[in-house]
Amino acid sequence: MPRARLAILAELSADGPNDPLFRALTRGGNLERYPADRKRRTRMRPGSLNERLQELAKQAGVPYIDGKKVTSHSWRAGANTDMAERGVSLAERR
Q: Are residues 54 and 26 in the same domain?
């Protein structure tokens, strides 16, 4: 996980080992607060991350990059592939 994200989570007191990676934020940039009795599952629904990333890419005006639709797989694997092609070692990419 990028250091900047870790710093932001720490600043928001949301960096505990069992805290979720993706957190809802208010328009003001604070953590969204939910009722204490809210029922939550331990995992996201399959496809949720992909849907979110595609919507954000669409809003940013880049739903396609090099003729390929932005997906959660391309988001995760793309940076790793780019680094590997530039000779970054596996240890550094991890």
A: no
Domain count, the chain: 2
Task: Report how far residue 62's alpha carbon sits from residue 74's, in angstroms, rounded to the nearest whole number.
Answer: 13
Phi/psi at 93 (5° precision): -70, -30
How far apart CA 48 and CA 81 sit, in angstroms, is 23
Alpha helix stretches (DSSP H) within the chain = 3-11, 48-59, 72-85, 90-93
Token pair, residue 2, equals: 């990028």
- pLDDT, tens only, 1-60: 467 767 777 888 877 777 776 777 777 777 777 777 777 666 667 678 888 888 888 999
